[in-house]
Amino acid sequence: MSRKHRGLIRRKGVDGQFVWHIDKKIKGYGRLCESCGTDDEDEASDYLTKRLKEIRDATVHGLRPKRSFRQCAARYLNENSYRRGISRDRDALVDMDSFIGDLYIDQMHDGSFERYREARRNPTEPRPGRKKIKPLSNGTLNRHIGVAARVLHDCATKWRDERANLTWLAQEPWINANAPHRKRQPYPLDWDEQQLIFEELAPHLQRMALFDVNTGARDEEMCALEWAWEQRVPELDTSAIRRTVFVIPGEVAKNRTEDPQPRLLVLNDAAQSIIDSVRGEHPRYVFTYENYAGTRDRLYTARTTGWLAARRRAAARYAGELRREAPPGFRGLRVHDMRHTFGRRLRAAGVSFEDRQDLLGHKSDRVTTHYSAAEIGNLVEAANQVIKSRKSPARTVLRMVSDRVTA
Fold it and tell me: Considering just the CA atoms, what is the radius of gyration of the chain in Å?
């Protein structure tokens, strides 16, 4: 049976282990109830003394309790669990935890991140059997450290002690999350480059890439695409095509808004034929592949090892078939560049800016989630311009490469 002693109670946990807990009323503060995290009575007593001093310092002298960055990061993740992209914030905080997790927030400054920056820019060789750590770019480091800066911002402006009405941090420290970095430039494909890379892709990736250059779907939208989101538009049927569109839910469509709206994914004739060709392969997902067990499964990204291998093979063939050296953008071709290809071809075909916004799912003040059949018909016709553009006279496409312009 647990016994009470000086505001401490020894309780048995669900794992069968005994742990001391604080249960004490404090004048001017209220009731303090929390675990000491130990079965040692002396350690529990020391912890209680420490907590009483922190509370007295805060309520009487206006001093803030010491809090580790790890505690603050946990609260940040808990309060923002509903936000889109919180998983990336969590990954960043976990990556930084061994470097800054134990630091008290009132002692943190820009220099506190120096060890982390150095360790991630120039990772040491791992011990045998350990996974090799890839170096992080300045852009990734900026994003990670920016998350930590947001945690400290909340400590200084948002979170307060209930009794003393003091923010957790007296002043927000200046954190440099803007180290110079080179942003990866888009690389829209021309028709010859498209044929070269498509010939090297596996059939399931080839279908996805061809769908992407005809719809501008994002990688995550394309991989998550479900048959339940497909809607018929019978008013636009022809003798050869039964016209459909997809309405992608807001939680999947990444249109960069706090209140995400569903996205209309318009299918031109080429994209519609791809959809019809995979119909019936899987009961739920549109784009799938055959796994080792012989069953069809969804992909979570089109940037698989198969994509990377196809990219290397296409780059090796580039000079011999196109009579020029493979540009860095082609050697590092991303799935997202298929989307850039669609956008560039729309612009080259003279499609209006407003229609390009709708077709690409960009944020717009005038965009609506309700479209009439006539409006969808106009968007289908605009999307079909990228098919017709191949028949147009050759165009010179200028690409900015560092400080040089190449044709």
Answer: 28
